[in-house]
Amino acid sequence: MDNPSTDFADTTTTRVGDSIETLSQLPDDWRLARTAGVNLLIIVPEGTKGFAERLIPELARPVVSWLPGERLMLPQAGQTGTLLLHNVGALSLHDQRYLIEWLERAAGETQVVSLTTVPLLPLVQAETFLARLYYRLNTVCVDMNVTA
Questions:
Q1: Region at 5 (left for phi over 0; alpha for psi -120 to 50; beta for the rest)
Q2: Which of 15-19, 75-79, 96-100, 114-118 is the most confident on average?
Q3: Cα(96)–Cα(94) distance, rounded to whole angstroms?
Q4: Rg of the chain over CA atoms, in angstroms?
Q5: At the N or C end, where does the chain have fewer CB atoms within 10 A?
């Protein structure tokens, strides 16, 4: 089973508030994490428009982007750059399994930046989001919902 337990601890989350519009405005330690290529999970406020578009110029090229309702297309093995997942909580379980298999093969080659409007931990606890995928995507979590 992909979710062997419902006793999950939330990983460290930086709460920056909604005044941050781009990753370059984050504290230095989180900008360093971005440039180091670790996976980022960014919780954005509901109804936020344009954040992803402002984010794309700051990401390593090439950027492969996924939107809910689209077929999940992943970078080829050995390709560097960024995979940008919009509303990652909307991934089907089938696509989640596909993504975790790809992450295991492409570890460290492509940075994954995931955007979500809802915290994923409750989805993991409800077994609608794979725990293995949650922890792979949640290397660094930035919560923009909390006002600074």
A1: beta
A2: 96-100
A3: 5
A4: 14
A5: N
